[in-house]
Every structure is written in C-alpha cells, then in structure tokens.
C-alpha cells in the first residue's frame, strides 16, 4: 500500500505503482505517443520515456535494439523532451520521467537541460550513469525546478544504500538483480531482502526494475515493493508488433499491445 | 602539484570521475580499496616487478637510432622498445598488474575488451599465467578483421565473446564488457586496457604503465648527460603515453602526444579526440570524445586499430587543457611512411600505432639542433599489422629490386 | 678438453672441415683471419655485446614455469626466453655478430639463405641497422609457404631471390647462396644462419650464440643453488642448441638435443638427422645427414620449417658420437601438444621448433624429483607459426567454450 | 705447345687439349656414350664424365638441369663408373675423368671407390668440393692406383696456387673466372695473368674452364693455356637436341651435335 507522496501529488493512487519504460521514437514519435496512451489505459502511473543513446551502458540487447531504431528515426534528447507536450495534447496525463544517459545532457548543458524539461512540463529525470557522487549539481538544479531526480540503488550499493535512499525524490529505482536491463525468469530471494532494507530508508515509493517480464514477477515484486518498473518486456511487445505497424495494421498492433500489457499486469 | 591527480573523486582537473550505473559503484569502491592497499604493500609491488622482469622481459631496451638520426639530421633519436615486451606491446605491463590485483582480490575470472586484439592477447596471456578464467569481448567486425589475434586468445585458453551491438568495434566491445561486469561483478575482475574508464582505472593503468617512463628516465641518464628535449608517444586511450610521460611531468621535458588523424582531421575519418573532439562522458569517465551535436558518440577511424577509439584517458584531457602536454595528429599515410623509414634504417618494424609517434618526431627532429636528444616510445611491434602493411606496401617492395 | 674444438682444420673430432669448391677457399681463409682478429679485439666484442643489449633486448629473461611445473609434477621447469629477442628468435644474436664482422671486413653486401624466413628476417634486420645491402636466397616453395616473412624481408629493404633448383626449399636455397657467394665473394659476406657450413662457420655461429648459455648460467645461479640437471634445446642446424650447450659442456649437466621426428622416425617423413642419418658432406661440412644409398641428399620433413634441414652442425655430430649430448626426436604431434600446454599454462606461445625441446622435457620431468631443475631453451616465439597452428587447432579451440 | 706428359702418356698430342664435360646419363647412359664418341671424333683429348648429384654446389643452372635429368634416369656414381668399360667397347679411347662431388664417394668409401675406378679402367678423378687441404688421403690412394687426381686452382687461391699447382696430376683445372659453371661472354684479363702464374708452377698441362662458350673463348684460352674445359656449353647443345632424341630422331640430333662442337672448336 502506497502512502508516501510523490511527484507533487500527481501520483496519488494507493495501490501499487506501474512504471513502464518506452524508448522515445521507437519506432516513431507518433507510435511512442500511441503506446504511452495504451499504457496509461492499462493503469500506468508514471511513464519512463527513454532517450535513445549510441552507447547505453546500462541496457541490455532489447533496449539497445529499440534505441537503434529510434536513433535511425532521428530521435534525440531534445526531441524526446519536446515529445512530452505532444503526448499531453493527445491525452497522456501521467507524470513523465525522461530517462537519458548523461552525455547528451552534458552537451545541452545542465541549465539549458532543466530549462527544457521545465518548459516542456517534464515531471522527472533519471540519468542511469550519473551516480549519487557525481550528481550533486544536477540534483540541486532538479530541486530548484521542482523536477523529480530519480535515483537508483542496487543490492551492492552497501553503505551507500542509506545515503541514496534518504535523499530519493519521486520514486526510488531499485535494481532487483545485478545486471543490465533485460528479461529474467526468476526473482532473487536476496533481492527481496534488499528491497526491505531500501524501503526502510526511503521517503518515496520504492519501485523495482531490471528483469521483470511476466505476471509472476509483477506479483512477487508487488508483494514487497511499492511498484514495478517494466522496460525490456514492453519493448519486446512493441517489437513483436513492428511488422504490423509497418504494414499499415497499426490499430491491430496497438490492440495486441494492450492485450499483452493487460496480461502482464493482471495475469 | 601535478602528482596529486587524480583527487579523491578520481578527477584530473575537470576530468575523470565515475559515470557508471549504480551497480558498478560498489565494485569500483572495492577495486579502489584493494588497489590502494596493494600499492602500499611491498610484497605486491615486488611480485609485480618480479613478473615484469622474469616473465615479460623488462627492462625493455633503450635503443639509439643512429641510422635514422643520420638520415634525418638534427636531434639524436632514442627509442624506448616496448615492442620487445612479451606479446609485443606495452599492454602486458598493465595486464600483469591488474591480473595480480585480481588474484589478490580473490577474483578467479577476468573480463577484458579488445579492439585489434592486443589487450585481449595480453589479458589472455596473464590469465593463462596466473590461472584465471578469461572472457574477452570483441566487436564482430574486429573479429573478422583480426582473425589471427582471435585465434591466439583462444589458444591461450580465453573465451572470445563476439559483440554485435553498435558497429561491432572497440567502443561497443567496451560497452558490452562493462555491461557484463555490471551483471557479474561479484566474482569477475574487469581488466581495462588503457587509462580510460571510471576511477580508479585511469590512475591504476597509469601506475602499472609508469614503468615505461621510470625505466626510460634511468636508462637515459646512463647514456646522455641531459634529459631528452622532447618525448613522443602515440595516444589511443593513452596508456603508453601516460606511462611514458608520468615520471617526466615535473621535469623540464616537452611532452608530445600523437593522435591518429586518419584520412585527415578535416575529414570525418579520424580518431583525433583532443584535436577535434569535445568534452563529454564515455565509458564512465568525463573526458574528450568524438560525438555529434546530440551527444551521440561517433565512430572514429584510423588505419591503426589501437588508436581507433573515440575517447581518451581523462588525465590526457587534463594535460591538454593545462597545456602541459602538446597533442598533435598524424595521418595514416604519414604513419606508414614513418614506419617504413624506421624499418629501413633501424631494422625495427613498429606497430602502426607507434608509427604515429615516430612520424611526429621525424617531422620535428630536422628542425632541432644536433646537441638535443629526443625519445620516442615504440609502444609495440608491427607483426600484428603485417596484413595491413602488405596491402599498402606490397607493390612498392615487389618493385624495389 | 672439449673447448679446443674445432681444431686448426675446423674439425670437431671426425666432423667439420671445409668441403667447398676451390674458389671458396680464399674467402673462407679471409673470413677466418678476420674472425680470429675480431674475437681478440676488445672493441669488437664490446660493440657486439652493446648491440645485443641496447638493440636486441638482451639479456633475455629466464622464466620459472611455475604453472607448467605444477601441472606436470616433478622437476622444476625453467625457460630461457629467446622468444623475447628482437625479431622473435635467437637467430638475431648470430646475425648481429656476423653483420658486425662483415662491416669490419669492409664488405657492404651480405647474402643469406633462409627456409621459413627467420634467419632471412634477422639478416634483413641487421642489414638495415648496419647499412648493408642484403640478398636473401629462399626456395620457391618456401616463398609460397611463408608469404609474410618474405614481405617482412622486403619491407626491411632486402632482396629476396627465389630459388627454383631442387625442391625449392632450404637445402636448395643454401646451395644457391653458396653458388652466388662463389661468384661474388670479393665484396659479399655470406651470413650463414646456423652452426653449419664449412669451417669457420660452425665455430663462428656457435660463438655468436653462446651468449644464450652464458646468460643462462649466470641467471640460473641467481635463482637456484645448483645447476639444472638437464638442459633441452631443439636442433635444426643446431645453433640455438650449441649456443645454449656450449658453456655447459664441461659442467655436470645432462644436455639433450631434440630433433624433429616429423610423422615418426620410422616413416620417411622426418628430419631426425642424428637419429636416422649417416655421416657425409653437406654444404661444405662433414657431418651427419639424410641421404639415399647413392649419397644423394634426401628431402627432410618437419612441421616446423626451422628444423626441416637434412644436415646438422658438425659439432653436434661430434657431441653425438662422443655421447656428451643425448639426442632425441619428437614428432609433429608431440610438439604441437607441448606448444599448447605451454601456451595454456604459461601464456607463452613458443615457436613450433622450440616446442620440440619442450615436448621432450615434458616427457621427462614427471620422472624426475621435485628437488631437481631443468632448463629449456625457448628458441623463438610462435607468431610466425600462427597459420600452421590455426590449421591444427582452430576446431579444437572454437569448440572449447 | 704442349710438352708435358699427362695421363701416363695417353695424352700425347702436342696441340691444345680439348676437355669436354658431359653428365653421365643425360638424358640416358646410351646417349652419353654416343656424345662421347662424337666428342672424340671432334678432337676431344680427355672426357670429363660428370656424376649427377642432388646438391651440386659448384655448378650453374645448366649442369643442374642435366644432373636432374640424369638422376631421373637412375644414374649414380657406381653406374657412371661402370659406364666407362661400356664406352671403351663402343670405341671411346681417350682418357676418362670421373667428375663427382665428395659425398657419393664417401658413401662408397675411399678404398672401394678407387678399386671401382681401377677395375673399370678410369684414368682420372675430379672432386670439385674436395680442396687440397681435405684431399690428402684421396690423393695418396689415387697415386697408389696410378689414377690422376685432378686439382683446381682459382684466381683467389693466392698463396695456395703454388702449393696446388706443384702437386698437380693429369692436368690442372684453372677456374678462369670466379663463379659456378656457366656460359659467359667475355674472358677476363686478370684471369689471363692468373693462368700465366699457374703455368709457371704446374708440372702438368694447365686447362681453363668455367665460362667457355664460343670459339672466341676457345681461341683466347688456347693462346695462353694448354687446353680448354667446356661443360655448360656442351650440355646446352645436348639440351637443344633432347626433343629430337625423344622423337626417335637420334641420328639427326647427333649430327647437329657434331656440327655444333666443330663450330665451337674451329670457328
Ligand atoms: C602497440 C600499441 N600502441 C598503442 C596503443 C594505444 O593504446 P594506448 O593509447 O592506451 O597506449 C595500442 C592499443 O592496442 C597498441 O597495441
Ligand atoms: C625459433 C627457431 N628455433 C630453432 C631453429 C632451428 O635452428 P637452429 O637449430 O640453428 O637453432 C629455427 C630456425 O629457423 C628457429 O627459427
């Protein structure tokens, strides 16, 4: 049961958070909005909007493929951020977290980046390769702009778990198993203990990601954490519909997508 | 004082740091502690130096290039012969240091990235020698181009893991090695091949390569009354250059790092990171890199696989910014010409990487006085480059007689 | 006393001498006088040792093979690392000595024979370094098989002269080099690559290679209380073995020379000159050789081009006859297995030639006590053999993981 | 003008010696006898009968080719020696010198070798790779059997010229130019000086070989020495007739041969 406040009250549900991840521009900006709408329909609470990157250190092959498709379609950090108002127009109401590697942010510049986030009504930002020790300036800027800076903790963060968890904003991203994003078939008992520890320190909801790929996982995570983050699995569903999208059977692809997501979240 | 770099956060001035997924922060911390302990431990240092000497064949020679000096006129040319190292390049110095550290940390498995295969071979070699399991990540494109080194690693007992992501080259192999490490850091040691990556790698690799400069300093004093006026080293990730330069940073010696200008720095095909790149984050470190306007890392180009890297060690970025080291860029053709000249005059076929340093030096020595001396780091031997050299020189040498 | 060999006629016991066309008697006499003078000249010896050290990278390491020792059980295995020599084998030691002598004699042109190309590369290398013109005679068949080394010699500025006579292999290349020398002895120095040929070559080459044994003796004393119980070296022409053995001839050390048994000494395909050959004359020297009943020299066979020679140095013939050295023969397959074992346990890929010595030692050490030590001469590195090794091991290593 | 005695009086001519060289068994033993007869017809004084060898260090490509043909036809040292009585039967009367490399001799053994030479009525022996310093035992055996041991001197034999020339038997083989056997177009002035020196010491006729390939050479040599030794040139003439021999036009080939030799010797 979720009791903590997050995203300045925009996330108000009391049941478990469902935080899906899609890559902006995979396979096109238009389709990303369509998928976002379907995810919202299926109960998504927060959307992680991934910015495709040439060298995504923390991502597995599925998300790498998605990034490649999106880059080919011309997506960039700036365009991904500018996609958010477009989403709003078409009905996406849930908070959006921009998920981007640090280098593109650096090229825009910290100040300009946050101005851009603010101007486009982005609620949160997650930078997977900017750990606590390197993120002070960015965290301060995020605070100034009242944008949630999402932190991650991992089982091997050890004495840093407390430090990271205590300053968490928006929600805290728990890496359930060591490893890059991807689908795995079993949840790790140790990981569950770790979640317990994190929850004890965190002022915000604790969501678990990395490796959640079926309803069993979702149930297991929801028994212990405040929410699930699902990335690779969703990308794979999108991937399986690519052919239909290309062949003008967009509607059918989206129906399939909704059905699969429903199944994933509700069994 | 230069020597205090990197600072406690792993910064060399504005550069360096640890820009890595959270899951690596623990392992990096563990590595740093172990490294700091080891480097204070006389027994560890003794073993490292013992292995360098009785296994790798150190000290490597300091050779006076009398014939090439006569040929060019000007400053006297000395060559530091890392090509004489076991496995044929300076890469082994670092691989030995890290493998010993891995053992000390109780890690029985190492992983490594490789482009042309030199660091992969060095890693596979130390894995064999120290009884470690070894996985080498290598881009599929590079596997195709470097069949021989792939076989060599396998013969040494290493597993070569093809990387198909990105363009299937060094940058992607490094990404993949890091990803694998993220997932398997508990019992795996990641053996990085240059002064790149997150802190403490740039410092660690530099310190395991400084033996090049330490030896050179000592050897030079034995044969010349004064230090060399200039020292040249090629720069890919930057490890042979850092290893050579480091002990000279506070000496009155001009230091020259030489990048790969490929087909020219005014073309898109080069790997001249400092000359043409901009600051950014690559492989966990804030440094210079080659990228497009959106911050996407671009594919570099150089005829020499070892310089074909879009980033550069953060300490070099700092030495560039602080102007302590001068950085130049040499084209494929200039490097090949220098390689041929050294081969014909000195009977030493250098690696094409090293030939970049030679080329820059050869440009400059004729303008220097005969009283001056210079030192060039010959980072490796050219055996690995024979296929490339044949492509370029076969006709020429076939018609020489 | 052994050290007085060869006698004034160039005899090692019954073997040696000068069986050459009359036209070569003058040049051989000239060579002998110049050599004797040079070897008495402090300045010459100093230069020779200086070049060995500051150019070739000597002393080469003495490596304790801890892992292979543990793997096999028994005597402790030490490796003399001639593979770390510049250009990758012991051949350079001799080439340096002879090139310096050529210069001293005022000969600006050298000729050399080569089989696999190792001695050719060494000769081309010293020719480049000392500014000599260089012609390398090489059988057409070998040129086809060793494309890379041919290119390397040419890149070094040497002319490679294809020999089509006979079977187009090393024996024929040597014949042709001698013929060319006969016609051009006035201004040409013939740089022979092993302890073969007419007097004074076997003595000269041995003396330019004894640095291997001299260093080993000194290095061994630094790490072990007693001399090695046995020393192993492969024998083609026999130069690395003679160089290693010579300083130990009067010590209490068992010396083991290892020939190539090819596909087996009971087949026609081998190069086990002492095991299966008979005395006769080849390339100007009375020694053992492989021949048919009519005294026609037969073509040897070994997987390793450097051992694929139908004769053997006359000093070996003498040491064989006098039983001072034990000679054994190792098959292709045994050598390959030993090569693989050393690679996997020690991270050293030896030349297939050297692997013959390793194989014999590896057979014996398990039967020796752990208090004993042995020394193996790793005459060269395996880089040159990669194509052959790939043929033999590719499938195996590809399926290892 | 020849005044010295050689070959126990068998060479009695007072004009210049003509010493041709053929390879036994090139292209067959029968043909070798035929060529020997033709050479005798054309005035040959002594026949050098070459034994084919696998590794003929002192021979150029022409003689190497001949040796290869003869080896292929099964020739050996023993068979070459045994060919001599056959020659005699068919009319060859001039002295025969067996020209062989040392290794085949060694394999037969010194004593057996000389027994064989004696038994087959061979008058002389020449071993090109057995220089003076290595030949003492062989020279003594030859003396015992009254077989001429032919020595060679070269321009670079220097102080050894006197030593070798003074002990010469049969005739003394002067290497006119440095180099292996073969055809050259010019005679060397230095070589002529050298011949003069040799003649001063030699108790036997001094013949010049290596490189004599036309009538001009022959004349030049005959102006200074006691005779000419001709090898490669003769082999080339034989070679040019090989096709005819193979095609059953043996007689024609032999006629051509005689004509060419006549031309060579008489212009
Ligand atoms: C011989 C040689 N030199 C230089 C380099 C470049 O690396 P670094 O700049 O780290 O010395 C390489 C890399 O493989 C190499 O093999
Ligand atoms: C590495 C190596 N070892 C041994 C040999 C055999 O020569 P030797 O018997 O003269 O040492 C060779 C000849 O090429 C060689 O290259």
From TrEMBL, chains A, D:
Instruction: Give the UniProt record's GO annotations in the biological process aspect.
Output: pteridine-containing compound metabolic process
SUPFAM superfamilies reported in the protein's UniProt record: Ribulose-phoshate binding barrel (SSF51366)
| Substrates-to-products reaction catalysed | (1S,2R)-1-C-(indol-3-yl)glycerol 3-phosphate + L-serine = D-glyceraldehyde 3-phosphate + L-tryptophan + H2O
Q: Per the record, what is one GO cellular component? A: cytosol
Keywords for this entry? Amino-acid biosynthesis, Aromatic amino acid biosynthesis, Lyase, Tryptophan biosynthesis
Give the Pfam families listed for this entry: Trp_syntA (PF00290)
The EC number(s) given in the record are: 4.2.1.20
Per the Swiss-Prot or TrEMBL record, the active site comprises 48, 59
* Pathway(s) of this molecule: Amino-acid biosynthesis; L-tryptophan biosynthesis; L-tryptophan from chorismate: step 5/5
Gene Ontology molecular function terms on file: tryptophan synthase activity
Boundaries of every Pterin-binding domain copy? 5-267
Top-rank EC class of the record's enzyme: lyase
Among NCBIfam families, the record links this protein to: trpA
How would you summarize the oligomeric state and partners of this protein?
A: Tetramer of two alpha and two beta chains.
What the protein does comes down to:
The alpha subunit is responsible for the aldol cleavage of indoleglycerol phosphate to indole and glyceraldehyde 3-phosphate.
Q: Which family does it belong to?
A: Belongs to the TrpA family.
**What is this protein called in UniProt?**
Tryptophan synthase alpha chain
Q: What is the lineage of its organism?
A: Bacteria, Bacillati, Bacillota, Bacilli, Bacillales
Name the encoding gene, please: trpA
